[in-house]
Write a structure and sequence with these properties.
heterodimer, A: about 350 residues, alpha/beta, 4-stranded mixed sheet, about 35% helix, about 35% strand, globular, B: about 375 residues, mainly alpha, 17 helices, about 70% helix
């Protein structure tokens, strides 16, 4: 018993000096969003968005922005720390913004420091700022939620319906994987609102092309299975029909024969026509007309997108990765050489399920 | 004939062999075994897990044959078969072997704690705390150790649920094409899997402590099956969640995959997961240390308590070495190599020697 007490004493004595840094919630400043902006070829601006809760008042937490310029993101974090009276902690970051100019130089450095940091989760959102991330993060949006909640919810909402899903995990997955390239949503601030204005496509880690929202939503049909979304079909030059609550699922068929590799993409789209416009949707003939026009329009747009990808030599659809799973012993060096010339066929089937609650 | 009779008050029921084997085989390895396997066998890594699992089933069966015939523990059987001198040498080797296993588990777990939770803490501080805790378990005897491993089995079980969060990001076609790798690559991966299954070796020392010892085999085999299933499930979810380049570069894929877990009450699930994992590590260390000290007691004229203290002090001393990633990786590699030859070469060898010797003795 005595020896055990002595051992306990020794443990306490030895360990007293070894306690890890304590983090008391009142004494730390949680960083909610980080942004990086281009300054010049060597340096960039780091923006840390945090919020301060005033004691005793039932108001929203206030925004607090810290900025610093430096050559590495670690350096910037240290500099930002010198501005704040409390320890900045990054465990709750939900959004990482990089501005477009910076993305055109390459974003690997930023995603790599995030990847290595054991404090950073994988379900955080990444986005490209059309102008500067400082502008977006320091904006005053007059809403009943904080800026960072607003931006995060905006991202989540657009991920569901318009853009393909992106978070840090998918970005890392696409960056490291063979036969796929990454893409990120683009945000822009206009007056007192932030808009998602498109999808930035990367070659390796460099931004090379940007799709607008309509192209991006077509891209989503090709990329993943989802429900939701909103599409407009031009039936006649002056008749437009909108298709909603789309249920889409793409299937890839890749095979190799003596003439080379062939890729076929089948996209099944089911949708509701709820807005009754100049066309009477109770007639079977008209439904067929919409379907035919829709298929033609979707196929045209999709083929145009794929041609663009092939011309740029980028593979955001991950066709190379899908080919790896279908063709044994696929050589990626060879694949990259072949990719721009491979015939890729798109085949859309469109099914119109209903037309609202009135005739 | 070496006969070893353990008092019934110190024995445990045969079905506990299930918990002992699971507690021993599911160790730190599961946090990061995917990396080495994918480096060799890519998307076919899961097949390597099945192959090596199957071989462990066979080896466990051989081990039980040796034990059933020898009617004692490893120490007695080796002394009987190899003579007193060589027997003692081999027995002391097994003390080191079990201790090495404990060192690997301890050091690897401490490394994970350092990287993920407390980078400022010295490894020896954690080693001191953990070893003191394990000492208090092991000095309580085998029954306490077995009780701990049963408890910890059920504490660790809910961690399976964390895989659910990976399914929305699954790319099932990552598993295709099946069997793209050559036989040689598959064998390398199978060998790399060995370290994770080594733990079953403790059965050699625990055997006499089972009531109706031979009947514990079916539970032990079930334990191995459960382990294989655990590794298989983890490997397949990792393969469809990551791509191969990521898997080959991530040190702890299982741990990193907890980063996608999104619960409204915890921001960083890794901390919860790692803490739960500590219980599984505890049963590992406790059983391993029990086996090491038990072997020492049976080999040398010392009490088990003294042996335990000496081993713990040596292990604590070792925590001052192996400070960086590279040396820990090398330690794992060496242990894996030693373990591979011990179970795949020495155990069958012992089995053959025993068969021959018993035939000869019968004729006499």
């Amino acid at each position: 018993m005595k020896s055990k007490l002595i051992l306990l004493g020794v443990c306490l004595f030895c360990l007293a000096g070894c306690t890890p840094k304590t983090k008391v919630i009142e004494e730390i400043q949680l960083v909610q969003a980080l942004g990086y902006d281009y300054v010049n070829d060597e340096e960039f601006l780091g923006v840390a968005g945090t919020q301060i809760t005033r004691p005793g008042e039932e108001t929203l937490p206030e925004n607090e922005i810290f900025t610093a310029t430096g050559k590495t993101s670690r350096m910037i974090r240290k500099k930002i720390q010198t501005e704040s009276s409390k320890t900045l902690v990054e465990g709750r970051i939900g959004l990482l913004l990089m501005n477009k100019e910076l993305a055109e130089q390459g974003i690997y450095h930023f995603i790599n420091t995030f990847e290595r940091d054991s404090m950073i989760g994988r379900d955080i959102h990444l986005a490209i700022a059309e102008e500067t991330s400082l502008e977006i993060l320091s904006g005053d949006y007059n809403l009943d939620i904080t800026v960072f909640e607003y931006l995060n919810e905006l991202m989540e909402e657009s991920n569901k319906e318009i853009l393909p899903e992106t978070n840090l995990h998918t970005v890392l997955y696409q960056y490291y994987g063979d036969g796929m390239d990454l893409f990120l949503p683009v945000m822009d601030k206009k007056k007192d609102r932030v808009f998602v204005i498109g999808l930035a496509l990367f070659n390796d880690d460099v931004l090379v092309h940007q799709l607008n929202v309509r192209e991006a939503s077509i891209f989503k049909l090709l990329y993943e299975r989802f429900r939701g979304g909103y599409y407009i079909i031009e039936v006649d030059p002056d008749t437009h029909v909108s298709v909603e609550s789309v249920n889409a699922s793409p299937t890839y068929k890749i095979y190799e024969d003596h003439t080379g590799i062939h890729v076929g993409i089948q996209v099944e789209v089911k949708g509701l026509v709820s807005e009754k416009e100049q066309i009477d949707t109770s007639k079977e003939r008209n439904i067929q007309k919409i379907q035919k026009a829709g298929i033609r329009e979707f196929e045209e747009k999709m083929t145009a997108l794929i041609t663009t990808f092939q011309e740029l030599g980028i593979d955001p659809l991950g066709i190379g990765d899908r080919a790896r799973s279908q063709i044994r012993h696929l050589n990626f060096k060879e694949w990259e050489r072949l990719y721009p010339h491979i015939p890729i066929d798109v085949d859309v089937t469109l099914e119109i399920i209903g037309s609202g609650i009135t005739e | 004939m070496p006969l070893l009779q353990i008092k019934e008050s110190k024995q445990v029921s045969p079905f506990f062999s299930f918990y002992i084997l699971v507690g021993m085989q599911v160790a730190v390895g599961i946090l990061g075994f995917q990396r080495i396997l994918t480096q060799h066998a890519g998307q076919d890594a899961w097949i390597a897990i099945l192959i090596s699992g199957l071989s462990i089933h066979v080896l466990l069966w051989i081990s039980y044959r040796i034990l059933n015939k020898g009617k004692g523990d490893l120490v007695a059987i080796q002394k009987d078969l190899l003579g007193p001198f060589i027997g003692t040498v081999v027995n002391s080797y097994f003390v080191l072997y079990y201790a090495l296993f404990v060192l690997v588990v301890l050091r690897t777990y401490i490394e994970v704690i350092q990287v993920w939770m407390f980078p400022e803490v010295h490894p020896w501080v954690l080693a001191a705390l953990i070893l003191y805790l394990v000492y208090s378990f092991v000095s309580g005897g085998l029954r306490v150790v077995v009780g701990i491993s049963v408890l910890n089995f059920f504490i660790g079980l809910p961690l399976f649920l964390s895989h659910i969060f990976m399914f929305p990001h699954a790319h099932v076609y990552n598993l295709l094409p099946v069997l793209e790798h050559s036989f040689q690559e598959m064998m390398f991966a199978t060998k790399a899997m060995t370290l994770n299954y080594l733990g079953f070796g403790v059965i050699f020392m625990i055997y006499p402590f089972f009531k109706q010892a031979p009947s514990s085999q079916k539970w032990a085999q079930a334990g191995v099956s459960f382990t294989v299933f655990t590794y298989l499930f983890t490997m397949i979810t990792s393969l469809i969640y990551y791509n191969q380049n990521q898997l080959a570069n991530t040190i702890w894929p299982t741990l990193t995959s907890w980063k996608i877990v999104n619960l409204s009450v915890v921001e960083r699930f890794e901390y919860i997961g790692l803490s739960i994992w500590f219980f599984i590590i505890l049963s590992n260390l406790a059983i391993g240390l029990w086996a090491a000290s038990r072997t020492a007691k049976r080999t040398f004229p010392v009490s088990q308590r003294t042996a335990l203290r000496v081993i713990i002090i040596i292990l604590f001393g070792c925590s001052f070495f192996f400070v960086d990633r590279e040396s820990i990786d090398r330690l794992n590699g060496i242990a894996s190599e030693i373990g591979f030859y011990t179970i795949y070469v020495y155990i069958p060898f012992l089995f053959i020697i025993q068969a021959i010797l018993y035939k000869v003795r019968e004729k006499r």
